[in-house]
Every structure is written in C-alpha cells, then in structure tokens.
Write a structure and sequence with these properties.
Strands 3-2-1-4-5 form a five-stranded parallel sheet, sandwiched between helices. It has six helices and five strands; from the N terminus they run βααβααβαββα. It is an alpha/beta fold.
C-alpha cells in the first residue's frame, strides 16, 4: 500500500543522525524516497525543513539536504492549510497538524517522534506505528 504522510522535522533529523539502517526513522525516510510514502507538505513545512536541517550543529551535507527537499517537492503533495484555530502545546507543531487536517484523504498520516505534542487521533502516529500500518496493509 502506498499512503500519504506529513513527516515531522524531528523524524527527518533522527533519520539523518541515526547510525542504524533499521531504525524506524531511517526506514520512514527510505520509504519516502522510494515512493512508498507520498509526502504531504506546505510551504511552511518546507521552510522549516530547510532551516532546521541546514543548522550548523547537525553538520548535514547540504547537497544531501537539498536533494531530500527537492525530492519531497517533486514527488510530494503541496497543501496550503487554513488556520484551524487549534492550540497545541508547541506552536511550532501547528503547521504539521494543520497540513494533515487540510489533506484528509484516506491513508494520510502525521508521522512524528513527539506524539504527545498532538491530540490523540488515529492518523497521528510514531515512525514505528507508521511502519506497522504499512506492513499490516501490504498484500500477502
């Protein structure tokens, strides 16, 4: 099954920092790049990806980051959400939540490592939960 997902920046950071090829965040990033997860994003989310992933403290290769962002733009779905009026504990999470609300197609999720920052909804999942969803819905 191919599904759509808004991927929180913390998932990308964790994937790029991980030395384990089988970590949930690395597997999520690989599925995005392989087209098994179609990224859903907004211009605000892309700006955050750029700003955070290019921070000197991470020392990520800028060509790799530019490739990743270009792939998300090329193969993802640009959505411009409307303000939801919802208040979250961390206001920086709001663009991700509003984007998943704006793109409420079947099989669309918000994948985050900070699940406690969001309302408890079935479409807000951890990277491991997203992998389980993909595995359990794959044809046998």
């Amino acid at each position: 099954m191919i599904c759509c997902a808004v991927v929180d920046t913390n998932v990308l950071v964790a994937a790029l920092l991980s030395s384990k090829e089988d970590s949930a965040t690395v597997l999520i990033l690989n599925k995005v790049l392989a087209g098994e997860i179609i990224p859903v994003y907004s211009s605000t989310i892309l700006n955050e990806y750029r700003e955070v992933l290019l921070r000197p403290k991470f020392n990520f290769n800028s060509r790799l980051i530019n490739y990743l962002i270009s792939a998300i733009e090329k193969f993802g779905i640009l959505t411009e959400p409307s303000p939801s009026g919802i208040t979250l504990s961390d206001s920086k999470d709001l663009p991700f939540y509003e984007t998943v609300l704006a793109y409420q197609e079947e099989h669309t999720y918000l994948v985050t490592g900070n699940i406690r920052h969001f309302p408890k909804k079935p479409y807000i999942v951890t990277p491991r939960e997203m992998l389980n969803i993909l595995e359990n819905s794959a044809p046998r």
